[in-house]
Amino acid sequence: MTPPKVLIISTGSRSCDNDLPIRKRKRTDITSVNEQQAPAQTSNCPQYLNTRMTPGLLMQFIKSNPSEQQITDITSMDFDGLLKLKTDKVPGSLAYWLVSTFDTCSCSLMDEKLRISDEDIHLATGIPMGTNKIDLASTSDKCERFLEAKRVWLTQFGNDTKVRTKQILDKIIEQRGGGVDLKRNFVVFIVSSFLMGVRSATASLRILKSLYEIESVSSFNWCAFTRKQWVESVDVWQRNRDPNALFGGPIMVLVIPR
Question: From CA 76, how far away is CA 62, in angstroms rounded?
Answer without folding.
Answer: 17
